Amino acid sequence: MDCPICEKHRYPTDTIYESKNWVITPGPLASQILGYVYIEPKRHVENWAQFTNDEIYELGILIKNVEAALIEILHVDRLYAVTISEAVRHLHVHVIPREQGMDVKGLPLIEQATQQKVKTEKQINEDQLKWFTNQLKNYFGLATSCKG
Ligand SMILES: [Zn+2]
């Protein structure tokens, strides 16, 4: 099986949070959106109907907790949770924050995140992304220690 998400989970480099069923990892710097993360099921699931009720239940809680964390860490006004899974069929949720005062919103912001077509003026660098990732790891606390 040639799946980039399964591959990433086999050799994790920057896991923010890991539970029994799900992994949270940072979005790419190229998206230029601070706070953009992926929520990915550990199992290779391509359709919503394949999830167990436990997995779906946990996903809802995770989205809720990620939003709470992002509101605390950044100045998040709206939080988008989007699934497309066309290019990579392993189902994954793009969690995309729109910060207060950010004038790019809706589909253009989703496109910026998922296609890295940058439209926002505010630029972020690697240090800021690392800072954010550490903040979010700290927020989720102990759960990150299970996989070095
Ligand atoms: Zn996969």
Automatic annotation (TrEMBL):
GO terms for molecular function: catalytic activity. Signal peptide: none annotated. Pfam families: HIT. A motif (Histidine triad motif) lies at residues 90-94. Residues 35-106 form the HIT domain. InterPro entries: HIT-like, HIT-like_sf. This is HIT domain-containing protein. It comes from Bacillus timonensis. The lineage of its organism: Bacteria, Bacillati, Bacillota, Bacilli, Bacillales.
